[in-house]
Design brief:
Blueprint (H helix, E strand, L loop, with lengths): L12 H12 L4 H22 L4 H26 L8 H23 L3 H23 L12 H17 L2 E2 L2 E2 H34 L1
Antiparallel strand pairs: 1-2
Helix pairs in contact: 1-3, 2-3, 2-4, 3-4, 3-6, 4-5, 5-7, 6-7
Length: 209
C-alpha cells in the first residue's frame, strides 16, 4: 500500500469514533471522497458570493473548507482502519482533491474580484500534487512536504475567510487576494522542492543499481 499522508488527527479518539461509526453504517470511503467535492463547491460558491467581505458567506466558506478536510480524513480512515477499501479507491482518493482545490481557490479569486489569481493558485496547487504523484509513479515514496501542501493551503483558505470578515482590505488589497498570493508562491516553491527531490532520488536510485 502507498504511504499515507501523515495526519496527527487520525490518532484522536473523536476521529476514530466517527470513522468507526461511518464504517458500521456502511458509508463507503468513495462516497466520503465524493462528498468532499460537494463541500468544496459550497466553499467556492460562498467565497464568490461573499465578494470578499460578507461575513455570513465567509463563515459558510470556512466551514465548507473544513468539511472538505474532514472528508479527506475520514475517507482514508474508513478505507484502511475500517477495512472498507474499494478497487477504484485510488481514483477517488486523489481526483476529488484536485477538483476541490480548483473549486475553492477559484472561488476565492472570484470573491476577491481577481479571478486570475484564483486560477493561478489552483494551477500551482494541482502542480504540487502532480509532482508528488509523478514521483510515486516512479516507485519513490510520496513526498508530502510543504510549505504549501494540501493541509497548509486549506488552513490558509480558512484563515483568509476568517480574517476577511474583520479586515476585508489589507494593505490596500482584498485580503483574499493577498492570501491567494501566498498560496501561489508557496505552492510553486513546494512543486519545485518536490521536483528537485524527485530528480535527486531518481539519480540516486540509478547510481545504486
Amino acid at each position: 500500500m502507498a504511504q499515507r499522508r501523515p495526519i496527527a488527527t487520525r490518532d484522536r479518539k473523536w476521529a476514530q469514533r466517527i470513522a468507526a461509526w461511518l464504517a458500521r453504517h456502511e458509508v463507503t470511503p468513495n462516497r466520503i471522497s465524493q462528498a468532499s467535492i460537494l463541500f468544496a463547491a459550497v466553499a467556492g460558491a460562498a467565497f464568490w458570493l461573499s465578494g470578499g467581505a460578507s461575513a455570513p458567506w465567509l463563515i459558510v466558506a470556512a466551514l465548507g473548507v473544513q468539511g472538505r478536510l474532514l472528508c479527506n480524513l475520514f475517507d482514508g480512515m474508513v478505507a484502511v482502519e475500517g477495512g472498507r477499501a474499494e478497487p477504484d479507491g485510488p481514483f477517488w482518493n486523489e481526483a476529488p482533491d484536485r477538483y476541490a482545490d480548483i473549486l475553492i481557490l477559484v472561488g476565492m479569486g472570484l470573491g476577491a474580484a481577481t479571478p486570475a489569481l484564483g486560477w493561478a493558485a489552483a494551477t500551482m496547487a494541482v502542480l504540487a500534487a502532480y509532482t508528488r504523484e509523478a514521483g510515486a509513479a516512479q516507485g519513490l515514496e510520496p513526498d508530502f512536504s510543504g510549505p504549501m501542501a494540501k493541509q497548509h493551503r486549506m488552513a490558509l483558505a480558512t484563515l483568509g475567510a476568517v480574517l476577511a470578515i474583520f479586515v476585508p482590505i489589507l494593505m490596500g488589497q482584498p485580503t483574499l487576494a493577498l492570501v491567494l498570493w501566498v498560496i501561489i508562491l508557496g505552492a510553486a516553491f513546494t512543486a519545485l522542492r518536490r521536483g528537485s527531490k524527485m530528480v535527486a532520488d531518481l539519480k540516486s536510485s540509478r547510481d545504486q543499481s
